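We were asked to recover a plausible sequence for a given structure. The inputs and outputs are reproduced exactly as logged, with field labels preserved.

PROBLEM: sequence recovery
POSITIONS: 340
GIVEN STRUCTURE:
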């Protein structure tokens, strides 16, 4: 008897296919020769669109193929080896980037306690208060994730207060925005309100329907001197830059990037509601496109026969299901049916 194929529909938004608009954008960019290394018209247009979206006319814009590279470029250009990069205890830069930010910046990565990736202002105060003389590494930048690795959204007033307070403490602020579109769509606020007055932002594309590519919005270039050299050193200054930029231009046009994110969020809410109706407890509030649910071994066995799901913490019976632009209501209903 043939086994039933296991679907990756909820494994990650990285597992989703590329949106047709991304493929169309690549085809349009593939029309004849163009200047290389980002000196083409499409890259310039995409940069202008990103600046306009985030109300940051003076920002520099760079691109990377992956979110990890975008984070490393942003952080490594902000620090010296005697500096500290502050992050949450569940941060992607801490747990899922293979030590890349530390290796390539030379700076120390210091975790701060959080609630699902949301860091309290008091934690910043406590860490910065310990800043000592030459014997101690010096806090330089704090990185926060929007939406967080546990699917939480920094609400606009909270992220504004956090970023402003970090600045008052003399810290720079980086926003890891691999799912920033989901946070913007969830709150129905402007992009800049969803990131506060952050100094540098990585803007996710791959998780939101692009074939590849994340952007780096450098809102205060004076604090990130040499960032273009870091981008080049780690191999993310693409010779055919227009193929990354063209996708951003397509997604920023008519707010497609927010429409895809809003759909993913809606599917996550549908999934979460169905799980709770069936008596399953959510481990974190569902505020964007990720669902964390507690499953006993029997329930997990039933679900995993049909779907690939991820267990973030092997010590906890919590499983992550992620919705994407391509998730359908039939996909959601199928997963719920598998748990009956």
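RECOVERED SEQUENCE:
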């Amino acid at each position: 008897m043939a086994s039933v194929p296991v679907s990756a529909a909820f494994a990650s938004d990285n597992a989703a296919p590329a949106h047709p608009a991304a493929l169309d954008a690549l085809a349009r960019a593939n029309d004849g020769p163009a200047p290389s290394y980002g000196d083409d018209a499409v890259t310039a247009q995409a940069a202008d669109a990103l600046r306009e979206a985030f109300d940051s006319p003076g920002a520099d814009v760079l691109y990377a193929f992956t979110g990890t590279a975008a984070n490393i470029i942003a952080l490594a250009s902000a620090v010296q080896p005697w500096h500290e990069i502050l992050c949450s205890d569940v941060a992607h830069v801490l747990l899922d980037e293979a030590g890349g930010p530390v290796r390539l910046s030379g700076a120390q990565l210091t975790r701060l306690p959080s609630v699902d990736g949301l860091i309290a202002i008091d934690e910043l105060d406590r860490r910065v208060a310990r800043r000592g003389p030459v014997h101690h590494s010096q806090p330089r930048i704090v990185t926060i994730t929007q939406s967080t690795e546990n699917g939480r959204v920094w609400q606009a007033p909270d992220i504004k207060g956090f970023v402003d307070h970090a600045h008052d403490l003399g810290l720079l602020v980086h926003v890891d925005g691999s799912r920033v579109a989901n946070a913007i769509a969830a709150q129905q606020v402007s992009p800049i309100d969803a990131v506060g007055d952050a100094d540098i932002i990585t803007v996710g594309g791959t998780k939101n329907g692009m074939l590849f590519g994340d952007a780096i919005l450098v809102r205060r270039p004076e604090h990130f001197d040499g960032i273009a050299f870091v981008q080049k050193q780690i191999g993310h200054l693409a010779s055919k830059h227009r193929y990354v930029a063209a996708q951003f231009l397509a997604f920023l046009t008519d707010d497609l990037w927010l429409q895809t994110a809003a759909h993913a969020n809606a599917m996550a809410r549908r999934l979460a509601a169905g799980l709770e109706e069936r008596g399953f407890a959510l481990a974190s509030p569902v505020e964007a496109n990720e669902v964390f649910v507690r499953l006993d071994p029997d329930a997990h066995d039933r679900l995993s026969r049909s779907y690939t799901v991820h267990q973030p913490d092997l010590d906890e019976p919590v499983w992550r299901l992620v919705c994407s632009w391509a998730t359908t209501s039939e996909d959601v209903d199928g997963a719920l049916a598998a748990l009956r």
